[in-house]
Task: structure prediction
Amino acid sequence: MDLGNLIGGLTGGDDSGNKKDLLSNVVSMVGGQEGLQNLVGQLSKGGLGSAVQSWIGTGTNEAVSGTEIEQALGKEQVSQIANQAGVSNDEASSGLASMLPSLIDKISPDGKLPSGDQLNDVLGGLKGMLGGH
Result:
Protein backbone atom coordinates (compact mmCIF):
# COMPACT_ATOMS: atom_id res chain seq x y z
CA MET A 1 0.00 0.00 0.00
CA ASP A 2 1.41 3.39 -1.01
CA LEU A 3 0.84 5.50 2.09
CA GLY A 4 1.67 8.75 0.29
CA ASN A 5 -1.10 8.10 -2.25
CA LEU A 6 -3.44 7.06 0.57
CA ILE A 7 -2.82 10.31 2.45
CA GLY A 8 -3.26 12.33 -0.74
CA GLY A 9 -6.52 10.53 -1.47
CA LEU A 10 -7.82 10.98 2.06
CA THR A 11 -7.00 14.69 2.17
CA GLY A 12 -8.20 15.31 -1.39
CA GLY A 13 -4.66 16.30 -2.35
CA ASP A 14 -4.95 19.23 0.06
CA ASP A 15 -1.66 19.39 1.92
CA SER A 16 -2.86 22.11 4.27
CA GLY A 17 -2.27 21.58 7.95
CA ASN A 18 -5.97 21.37 8.82
CA LYS A 19 -6.72 18.44 6.52
CA LYS A 20 -3.62 16.59 7.67
CA ASP A 21 -4.41 17.38 11.32
CA LEU A 22 -7.94 16.06 10.85
CA LEU A 23 -6.61 12.88 9.22
CA SER A 24 -4.05 12.52 11.99
CA ASN A 25 -6.88 12.71 14.54
CA VAL A 26 -8.88 10.12 12.62
CA VAL A 27 -5.86 7.79 12.56
CA SER A 28 -5.37 8.32 16.30
CA MET A 29 -9.08 7.67 16.91
CA VAL A 30 -8.78 4.35 15.09
CA GLY A 31 -5.60 3.73 17.09
CA GLY A 32 -5.44 -0.03 16.73
CA GLN A 33 -7.60 -3.14 16.55
CA GLU A 34 -9.77 -2.20 19.53
CA GLY A 35 -10.16 1.40 18.35
CA LEU A 36 -11.14 0.28 14.86
CA GLN A 37 -13.67 -2.20 16.25
CA ASN A 38 -15.10 0.53 18.53
CA LEU A 39 -15.33 3.03 15.66
CA VAL A 40 -16.99 0.54 13.32
CA GLY A 41 -19.38 -0.48 16.11
CA GLN A 42 -20.21 3.12 17.00
CA LEU A 43 -20.91 4.04 13.37
CA SER A 44 -22.99 0.89 12.87
CA LYS A 45 -25.04 1.49 16.02
CA GLY A 46 -25.46 5.10 14.93
CA GLY A 47 -27.39 4.05 11.84
CA LEU A 48 -24.53 3.67 9.35
CA GLY A 49 -24.25 -0.13 9.42
CA SER A 50 -24.85 -0.69 5.72
CA ALA A 51 -22.46 2.12 4.79
CA VAL A 52 -19.73 0.74 7.06
CA GLN A 53 -20.17 -2.73 5.61
CA SER A 54 -19.79 -1.26 2.10
CA TRP A 55 -16.49 0.36 3.17
CA ILE A 56 -15.17 -2.92 4.56
CA GLY A 57 -16.47 -5.00 1.66
CA THR A 58 -14.94 -5.15 -1.78
CA GLY A 59 -17.72 -3.30 -3.63
CA THR A 60 -18.48 0.40 -4.01
CA ASN A 61 -18.20 2.56 -0.91
CA GLU A 62 -21.52 4.04 0.18
CA ALA A 63 -21.23 7.79 0.76
CA VAL A 64 -22.31 9.39 4.03
CA SER A 65 -22.91 13.01 4.97
CA GLY A 66 -21.30 15.05 7.68
CA THR A 67 -24.66 15.17 9.43
CA GLU A 68 -24.88 11.36 9.44
CA ILE A 69 -21.34 11.11 10.85
CA GLU A 70 -22.16 13.63 13.57
CA GLN A 71 -25.34 11.74 14.47
CA ALA A 72 -23.48 8.42 14.61
CA LEU A 73 -20.45 9.63 16.58
CA GLY A 74 -22.20 12.30 18.62
CA LYS A 75 -21.67 16.04 18.61
CA GLU A 76 -19.29 15.84 21.55
CA GLN A 77 -16.86 13.47 19.81
CA VAL A 78 -16.99 15.46 16.57
CA SER A 79 -16.38 18.66 18.53
CA GLN A 80 -13.38 17.10 20.26
CA ILE A 81 -11.91 16.01 16.91
CA ALA A 82 -12.59 19.48 15.46
CA ASN A 83 -10.84 21.20 18.38
CA GLN A 84 -7.80 18.92 18.10
CA ALA A 85 -7.55 19.54 14.35
CA GLY A 86 -8.21 23.27 14.58
CA VAL A 87 -11.29 23.17 12.34
CA SER A 88 -14.99 23.91 12.79
CA ASN A 89 -17.43 21.16 13.74
CA ASP A 90 -18.90 21.31 10.22
CA GLU A 91 -15.44 20.93 8.66
CA ALA A 92 -14.69 18.02 10.98
CA SER A 93 -17.94 16.17 10.30
CA SER A 94 -17.71 16.69 6.52
CA GLY A 95 -14.01 15.76 6.59
CA LEU A 96 -14.78 12.59 8.52
CA ALA A 97 -17.57 11.80 6.05
CA SER A 98 -15.10 12.02 3.17
CA MET A 99 -12.12 10.35 4.92
CA LEU A 100 -13.63 7.45 6.86
CA PRO A 101 -15.06 5.52 3.87
CA SER A 102 -11.70 5.65 2.06
CA LEU A 103 -9.61 4.95 5.15
CA ILE A 104 -11.67 1.96 6.25
CA ASP A 105 -11.82 0.71 2.64
CA LYS A 106 -8.04 0.95 2.24
CA ILE A 107 -7.25 -0.81 5.53
CA SER A 108 -9.67 -3.64 4.69
CA PRO A 109 -8.70 -4.54 1.10
CA ASP A 110 -9.71 -8.19 1.47
CA GLY A 111 -13.26 -7.38 2.51
CA LYS A 112 -12.57 -7.84 6.22
CA LEU A 113 -11.01 -5.79 8.97
CA PRO A 114 -7.26 -6.39 9.28
CA SER A 115 -5.56 -8.22 12.12
CA GLY A 116 -3.88 -6.22 14.86
CA ASP A 117 -0.39 -6.45 13.33
CA GLN A 118 -1.52 -5.51 9.81
CA LEU A 119 -3.55 -2.61 11.15
CA ASN A 120 -0.73 -1.39 13.39
CA ASP A 121 1.68 -1.43 10.43
CA VAL A 122 -0.63 0.71 8.28
CA LEU A 123 -1.60 3.10 11.08
CA GLY A 124 2.00 3.40 12.25
CA GLY A 125 3.09 4.27 8.72
CA LEU A 126 0.32 6.84 8.37
CA LYS A 127 1.19 8.42 11.74
CA GLY A 128 4.84 8.63 10.70
CA MET A 129 4.00 10.33 7.42
CA LEU A 130 1.58 12.72 9.11
CA GLY A 131 4.18 13.88 11.58
CA GLY A 132 3.57 11.45 14.42
CA HIS A 133 0.58 13.24 15.97
Q: What stands out?
A: Helices lie at 3-10, 17-30, 33-56, 66-73, 75-85, 89-106, 116-129. The mean pLDDT is 83. Residues 78 and 87 are 10 Å apart (CA to CA). The chain has seven helices and no strands.
